From TrEMBL:
<dbReference type="InterPro" id="IPR001539">
    <property type="entry name" value="Peptidase_U32"/>
</dbReference>
<dbReference type="InterPro" id="IPR020988">
    <property type="entry name" value="Pept_U32_collagenase"/>
</dbReference>
<feature type="domain" description="Peptidase U32 collagenase">
    <location>
        <begin position="399"/>
        <end position="511"/>
    </location>
</feature>
<dbReference type="InterPro" id="IPR051454">
    <property type="entry name" value="RNA/ubiquinone_mod_enzymes"/>
</dbReference>
<protein>
    <submittedName>
        <fullName>U32 family peptidase</fullName>
    </submittedName>
</protein>
<dbReference type="Pfam" id="PF01136">
    <property type="entry name" value="Peptidase_U32"/>
</dbReference>
<dbReference type="Pfam" id="PF12392">
    <property type="entry name" value="DUF3656"/>
</dbReference>
Length: 665
């Protein structure tokens, strides 16, 4: 039967879903699990879904033993905990299989018996923290994207693989900060990344100044990372202990999710063929009606980040958006069109891009294209030539919207089926059809009626086989059809269809009856001690239940979350493993041993400037980390003061409230 293997032997492909429809297609294209936001409290403010949509997605996913994880991973105020608790119960009752959680206050309320997964926002970088989260009841933990293979292996060694699985991001956009450790958005706009409303200051252009005010880099997107792509590292990640392979993208469209899910499904299936000791975490197989290609979906360039150690070229410094794939170079420019030469086939409506002489990305749509010769195209831009700054012969043109590709993915681009063996035999009342699927589930149906001998035995046998094989509107695909009759009978097509439908319905019912919810892990007793006895604002404690949780696990000093506004001075607004000095070849370690340079470059602060915004970069070379330092704006404090809200304070506010009472902004 399905999932007789231990949890440590199962590999899960986990895909994002902005909507239930996208989630359903993720399952069809091969996802073993899907993560989706509910009505509120998911760490993507614009990607919420009504609970009825969660139920619809779960109903479809469970047919293939695929799972649905609901994100409940923002930090919560005291006055939001009850609503979050009710949302958790509603998601559970409608079929959700797990909750993805950041706020430890939720572990102090009456949650349903649903599996808990620790969000990437919990910032899991050490074996000690991973072990703690396992011991308080998390069954799956999302490691920080910045970890190396060696660090992932260390986390695996600290865990019991039968109790807790390691989840790791393998594709998609990268936050430059350690997840959960970025406060720039809140400091500058009042929009908290920890509450799902990041303003993405990391994608802005900055001037980089040294200590003497000299410009080190001009209008460069120095905090913007390329996109994560672990396609080449899946085998080593499996060996390191990863069991859930997560694609980022709850804001992404249908085509992105289809393409990336299909891509990684194929890669993982090839590895499973080579590793018989491992199995996929859900049932069935997907047939894709296109060839997936991750480069054809939105991306800022590819990096495997820190998995194989620090790399120099991890930033998307030129542009924080997708330039697309090269399609050719400009050969001549006229008043209303231009010509280019290249191998790609262009189409009306394609989105094209190029970099102007200042290395700014210019994008436009092709209103009309015309092939003028083999490999040569004339392009009429939708908004005319006047706005195409610096476009001239020799410039490379790329395409970031391929209308033919989009049309392909807009249609039915995959089918998912579960293999089934069919056996038709005589029965005392007529005919019996027995079905046995690839997971060992079995169902039978009987057609009670008398039959006449077939006038054309060969044709009758072919008709029986063809009629049984008509499974196209089901979740099954026949891999074997045995017809065990002493003589060919003539069976009317309508009667055979009815027999097949009844057997298929009973097999689906047998599968549904055997479906089991994921088990909720029980915390160990006595309560484990948190690895540290003091927590700063970086722990994101925003409600009293979270404070009580940490106190119950031995933490003595518990500061309030940055969103509680107790850190009015300069603090680290972002902590990142990305180092601007290293990327600009100014790291002291890079210059060690270089004649005439060694000893002259120190990890002194740099300054980022964007308009009136100034941020200081400080470098902690021992752990090789960078801190982006700044302070909260007075306008944000005034805005918060105008809206009384209940949240945790470590220190009494000006009004004199005690630390045991809810704070008010």
């Amino acid at each position: 039967m399905l999932h007789s293997e231990s949890p440590a032997a199962r590999l899960e492909l986990l895909s994002p879903a902005r909507t239930a429809d996208i989630g359903i297609e993720a399952v069809n294209h091969g996802a073993d699990a899907v993560y989706i936001g509910g009505p509120a409290f998911g760490a993507r403010a614009g990607a919420g879904n009504p609970l009825g949509e969660i139920e619809r997605l779960a109903r479809h996913a469970h047919r293939f033993d695929a799972r649905v994880f609901v994100t409940l991973n923002t930090i919560l105020r005291d006055d939001e905990l009850e609503e979050a608790r009710r949302a958790a119960w509603a998601a559970y009752e409608l079929g959700a299989d797990a909750l993805i959680v950041q706020d430890m206050g939720l572990l102090e309320v009456d949650l349903p018996p649903i599996q808990l997964h620790a969000s990437t926002q919990t910032d899991i970088r050490t074996p000690e923290k991973a072990r703690f989260l396992q011991d308080v009841g998390f069954s799956q933990i999302v490691l920080a994207r910045e970890l190396t293979l060696k660090q992932i292996q260390a986390v695996r060694a600290a865990l019991d693989p039968a109790r807790c699985a390691i989840e790791f991001f393998i594709h998609g956009a990268l936050c430059v900060a350690y997840s959960g450790q970025c406060y720039i958005s809140h400091a500058h706009t009042g929009r908290s990344a920890n509450r799902g409303d990041c303003s993405q200051a990391c994608r802005l252009p900055y001037n980089v100044l040294d200590g003497q005010g000299r410009v080190v880099a001009h209008q460069s997107h120095v905090l913007s990372m390329k996109d994560n792509d672990q396609s080449a590292n899946l085998a080593t990640l499996i060996d390191a202990g990863v069991r859930s392979f997560k694609i980022e993208g709850r804001y992404k469209d249908m085509g992105y999710v289809k393409n990336l899910t299909a891509h990684y499904r194929r890669l993982l299936d090839r590895l499973l063929e080579q590793r018989p000791e491992l199995a996929r975490a859900s049932s069935g197989h997907s047939v894709h009606h296109f060839t997936p290609d991750p480069q054809r979906s939105y991306n800022r360039g590819a990096t495997d980040y820190f998995v194989n150690g620090r790399q120099a070229d991890i930033g998307a410094f030129d542009a924080p958006t997708w330039a697309g794939l090269p399609v050719g170079h400009v050969t001549c420019v006229s008043r209303d069109a231009f010509e280019l030469e290249g191998d790609a086939a262009l189409a009306n409506g394609d989105g094209l891009t190029y970099f102007d002489l200042q290395r700014e990305l210019i994008g436009f749509r092709a209103n009309k294209v015309e092939r003028v010769a083999d490999g040569r195209w004339r392009v009429w831009p939708a908004d005319g030539m006047a706005r195409l700054k610096d476009l001239r012969a020799g410039m490379e043109i790329s395409r970031n919207t391929d209308t033919a590709w989009d049309r392909l993915l807009a249609g039915r681009s995959a089918e998912r089926r579960i293999d089934v063996a069919m056996h038709l035999a005589e029965h005392p009342d007529g005919l019996q059809l027995a079905l046995t699927d690839a997971d060992g589930y079995r169902a039978e149906a009987v057609l009670a009626r008398a039959f006449e001998p077939a006038r054309d035995p060969q044709r009758a046998a072919e008709a029986l086989r063809a009629g049984l094989d008509r499974l196209g509107n089901t979740i099954f695909a026949a891999t074997r059809i045995d017809i065990d009759l002493p003589r060919p009978w003539f069976v009317p097509a309508g009667a055979l269809n009815a027999l097949r439908r009844e057997a298929v319905e009973r097999l689906e019912a047998a599968r549904a009856a055997a479906f089991r919810p994921l088990p909720r892990a029980q915390p160990v007793s006595p309560p484990p001690q948190y690895p540290e006895d003091g927590l700063s604002y970086l722990a994101n404690v925003f409600n009293h239940k979270a404070r009580d949780f940490y106190a119950r696990h031995g933490v003595r000093v518990i500061e309030a979350a940055y969103e509680s506004h107790e850190e009015a001075g300069e603090v680290s607004l972002m902590i990142t493993r990305h180092c601007v000095r290293y990327s600009l070849s100014l790291c002291p370690k890079q210059t060690a041993g270089v004649i005439g340079v060694a000893g002259t470059i120190r990890a002194e602060p740099l300054v980022l400037v964007n308009g009136s915004e100034r941020l200081t970069l400080r470098f902690d070379c021992k752990p090789c980390e960078m801190h982006v330092v700044g302070r909260i704006k007075k306008s944000v404090l005034r805005q918060a003061a105008a809206t009384p809200l209940q949240f945790y304070r470590a220190r009494p506010p000006v009004s004199g409230a005690t630390t045991t009472e809810p704070g008010h902004s």
